[in-house]
Amino acid sequence: MFATLSDRLADTFKNLRGKGRLSDADIDATAREIRIALLEADVALPVVKEFVGAVKERARGEEVSGALNPAQQIIKIVHEELVAILGGETRRLRYAKSGPTVIMLAGLQGAGKTTLAAKLALWLKEQDKTPMLVAADLQRPNAVQQLQVNGERVGVPVFAPEPGNGTGNPVDVARASLEEARRKLHDVVIIDTAGRLGVDAELMKQAADIRDAVQPDEVLFVVDAMIGQDAVTTAQAFLEGVGYDGVVLTKLDGDARGGAALSIRSVTGRPVMFASSGEKMTDFDLFHPDRMASRILD
Ligand code: GDP
């Protein structure tokens, strides 16, 4: 992820090395290069425009600091603007003040939701929480079993409808899971909801019904970072249909160009909270905008 963008930006900055002072023409040329690099990385057009505009304005206005040469100065500005579009501060989970914290996951089928649910459970366990997973995806025949397998891998119990009752109502399952969590003293409940191959009204309604029934502390929209511009379109559809507090980017280990990661915060106004980056259960962490920006500019 981001390899092409990183290379393109590095080339752009290389051209500035050795220059004593940047002329307006140098700044314009650099801005153009950055624009092309971002567009090639599949960053959404309005985000590119805003980003390049901000870099240009700052590059022109900024006092040249004695400690930095022009190339370093631009890199610093680009770094800071990258951090800004990625959301600035790391957004941490909000836990409930009393009773179990309820986290609901929503997203398309194949986004990596079931895998992510288990990764998140393990991550919470490592922070001395006692999570429980909830199989409220009753649409796909194997979803419950898949969550159970993943739950076993990380040693976290899975609340699921009784076998033979696979056509149960996901809203009832989600509601019942909260009682179970209180009874068994789980302090975090992670509810996996049904995904579809594409956005549809029924899927949205079901997710919204679960949300209304359990009033989650956090609704997280899970999206595959490899699907490029489609990730942004899907993110908008889920924002309107279900609403969410934060985004989880999955498959950041893939070879996609990274545009989704850079666009989603600006387009939806919701922060990326977690990054999932591989098949291993430990390939998962909070999303840190400053580290991501450094990775892009390294
Ligand atoms: P769901 O349909 O949203 O529940 O998606 P799954 O959790 O079943 O994941 C779909 C596929 O993507 C599976 O083959 C996972 O192993 C794979 N997958 C999930 N997360 C990641 C990730 O971060 N990186 C990679 N490379 N593959 C992933």
TrEMBL record:
GO molecular function ontology, one term from the record: 7S RNA binding
Q: Cite the EC number.
A: 3.6.5.4
Instruction: Identify one Gene Ontology CC term for this UniProt entry.
Output: signal recognition particle
Record domain SRP54-type proteins GTP-binding: where: 271-284
User: What biological processes does GO assign it?
Assistant: SRP-dependent cotranslational protein targeting to membrane
- Going by the entry's taxonomy, the superkingdom of the source organism is recorded as Bacteria
What is its subcellular localisation? Cytoplasm
Q: Which residues bind GTP?
A: 107-114, 192-196, 250-253
What does the record give as the reaction this protein catalyses? GTP + H2O = GDP + phosphate + H(+)
According to the UniProt entry, the note on domains is: Composed of three domains: the N-terminal N domain, which is responsible for interactions with the ribosome, the central G domain, which binds GTP, and the C-terminal M domain, which binds the RNA and the signal sequence of the RNC.
What is known about its subunit structure?
Part of the signal recognition particle protein translocation system, which is composed of SRP and FtsY.
Please identify the protein, giving its name as recorded.
Answer: Signal recognition particle protein
Full-length numbering of the shown residues: 1 to 298 of 525
